[in-house]
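Quick one:
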Amino acid sequence: MKQSKMVQVLCKNQKMRFVIAITLLTLLGFISTSLISYFVAHQAVSKQITQSALPLTSDNIYSEIQRDLMSPVFIASLMAQDTFVRDWAISGGKEPQPLIRYLSEIQKKYKTVTAFFVLDETRQYYHPNGVIQTIQPGPVINEWYFRVKKMPTEYEINIDHDTANPERLSVFVNYKVFDYNHQFIGATGVGLALDKVQQLIENYQRKFNRVVYFIDKNGELTLRGSQFSANAKTLQQPEFKNVLDKDTTTTAASFQYQSGSHTVYVNTRFIPEFNWYVVIEQTDDAQTKKLFNSLMINVVVSIVISIIVLVASYYTLAAYQRRLEYMATTDRLSGAFNRHSFDILFEQHLRLAERKNKPFSGILLDIDYFKAINDKYGHVVGDEVIKQLVGILRQQLRESDMLCRWGGEEFLILLPECQIAAAVDIAEQTRKMIQGFEFSQEIKLTASFGVAEFNIDEHPSCQEKWISDMDKALYQAKANGRNTVVEVC
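Output:
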């Protein structure tokens, strides 16, 4: 029936809107929680990198540097303090071979790329291979000696071309040599192959999974590994320049900056032995990727759960709605429509009849002497009789007809597109079926019928008069001795 279907569609739409609203709220809650967790975790990761991971890495690398690069400084210091070297230099260096053998042994024992000594008196450059040259002011390759002679500190570390092999860059530890009266008499030291030092940096980067490089106090790059990017913006950051501009060297400093969509975390530590800064960089790529993947998993799980909630809510509400609709529109005992349903469906049949200009009829029936059955057999048997009667009535009805329980033992049947004569025939056939049927406890029943046609031309939309006509006809059937059909003329 169209009216019933329209009500169902309306209820279904309301139910769908309610379920969608609940699902969206659930999804919004899940996603909001996931986003909040993501940003909180991101801040925690940023704090952990800045305050814990990078400073700890800086300390570890500083310890590694002291172990790996301080060894050449220690060797050069021993050479500068060695009494043999000092006595040989004080004596004027007349016999070069003993010093050359000494430098050769130093080079072999400590596996340095070179070992050298420059006697200030003659400015001759001694090497394990012999006297290489005399240091003269002017050439760039000799500037290191005159710088060392004037520097206030006892030693320096720098990257320079090897005097014995000008094509090769090496990391040199240049150490001043003094006589016993603390007068400058020369410079000595060792050199390490640059690729060996860079290999140390590569080991640091591999071990700590960070970018590691060294700069001097002027901000100039001194040593770097393969992970160093020439496009890195760290050295141009104001925070970095503040570290270099301070009058006193800073033991450690940390800052961070944005590079595109990534955050770069930087930690610097001054190494007084080298007069350099070690710079350690880390981006949040790996951590952010893990957090983002976790966020995506949470979002997907949220969507799946929301879909499950949507489906479960829809079918649960649908089941409850069908149950409520059934309870609201159906007589619980008989399964026929109740009077509330009749009022709704009558309006639909009336509009249909007006549109098609065809009358419809109704049958009002009442079980004869039903109270006597309840008194004799009890209400349980009486209820069973009602159910069996409804089954008989439905056998006589079309799918479009409507059966309604009107009272305790009264039923109203609405017959669409049915004139009075056909309605009387249906009532008569029904009366005979009831009379010939054997109910529970071998009970025999009869029923009285009142039939009336609803003619829209005579009294359109007059439901009360139509029902009143059927009621009068039923009353007349009772007065005529019951078990009869009376029509309204």
